[in-house]
Fold each of these.
Amino acid sequence: MSLTETPGMKGQPLPQPPAIQRFFGSTVVSVAIYVIVIGMIVWGSFTGAQNMGYNWQWYRVPQYIYSFTDDGFQFGELLIGLGATLQLSITAFILASLLGLLVALLRLSGLVIGSAVAIGYLEFIRNIPLLVLLYLFYYVLGPIFGFDRYTASILTLAVFHSALISEILRAGINAVHKGQWEAAKSIGMSTGQTYRYIILPQSVRFMLPPMTGEVVHLVKSSAIVSVIAVAELTTFGRNIISDTYMSFEIWFTVAMVYMVVTLILSVGVSYLERRYAVDQ
């Protein structure tokens, strides 16, 4: 092999990760470990509840998930809350992506003011806890600009995750070879055209896996808006508990719903990572 060749060139196989890394990185083992950990948590909680003399009422839980009436199948409160959570998360993610793209482009613009604004924004947002940011939008900015609970929640999630998304976008753009910029300039493309037709389409395969992972993170973060009584899954769960006192059953059910959603998204992330894997 010449000095300019690397593993994987001319049919050479790429180096394989160690056996222990392949073992723990497999989907089956990851799911097994996940199930074992969840099982241990459930067993510990069940044992603790039994020692407290807790009266389990699992038979009442299905009515809060679904029901059949004269009008047919009806969604229960928890499924309605799940729909509200997904709607909130999708709206916040779209806004966060647009805001993150703007921040990333400002940081890559080469302009002193643009870069300073982007860096200041990132440092400010990344160093504020999500709960504090939620209180800031609802209790401080809400009365000034007339934000209701739902608007404040979307803005909080969008602003917080836009800082993370902007770094993903910036890394994806920087991953495109500089020769692509030079080729675009050589044929007379403007900066905007270069981004639109050359850079962003090529950077998608670098950005898509971490971006889908950020969706999982945002769905889990959305539970925090329950502290200001926004109607979503966690809030519906708290309301049911206040009416029925079935703390263990409802929280376990809410946790399982979140787990199913995040597992589905995680499987999608794993597929995208394999589909858009980039050989180094």
Amino acid sequence: MRDQIFISYCREDRHYKDRAKKHLCGLCNFSGIGVWCDEQIETGSQWDHDIAQAIQRAAAAVLLISKDYLASDYVTRAELPLCLEAWKRGELWIIPVIINPCVFQSIETLNRLQTANSPDKPVCELSELEQDKLWARVAEEALKARNEMVRSRPCESAGIRSAAPPAGTPATASPAKRAAEQGGGLSACPAPQEADTGGYVVPDGAGWCEAIICEVRKGLSPKYRCYKIDGLIYVQGHTPKPGESHWIFYKAYRFRDLKPGDRVRFQKRSLEEPIDWPDIGWARNIYISRLFIDARK
């Protein structure tokens, strides 16, 4: 049972670990999960074994990324690889926090992770009030990640859910057709539009969707990011306009950059009404509250 939050840090950053732990423990005292860091290892215990066991029991890992963290042989050769391996298997959610300026964005194995704060605004440059606000968000995100993992397993074997089609459904059936055959109420969707758009993306009860990024919108302000997904978010009673497309839209600092081919899982906050844009035609912006990139390649 993955019922705790793991804090990964280096000794030079213990001050930040202590502040993060206070917020995590404050939330976890009311949620039935625990917080673990290496200070809980008893004298005489085997460090490697205890840390590996803690990661196996963790639902979320908070990584305190700094120049000292990335320079630590133990962290980069033992602790961090265990976290990344569990993340790739969909067994662990990782929440990196940038402590001070470092080479995080230049490390291919890490820079695909969504950070809690912008690398341009490391914790060391924040006021105490801003730090507390950040740690509170990290604690809430860790709890949400844990609850999402509990909710989605054992149906999922990785970080992106893929609903299995019912027996007898062709593997190539679109999301709309599968949903209709499972009683999802999409049988009225026009088949020609379904063929034109590649199918529908059907949010679950909590607004979670999965899709593949197929295009990056050009010519936007550097403050924003916009990505076309490989289908349409299903809206009951709405008949898509010819050529309509749907685009994930967010401020650049909120989430990591995406590229065509990325498979993503996101929580839809709202869906804009269709607008006839001069560059992309009839399109809807999808506003999101959370975003995860599938680690499987």
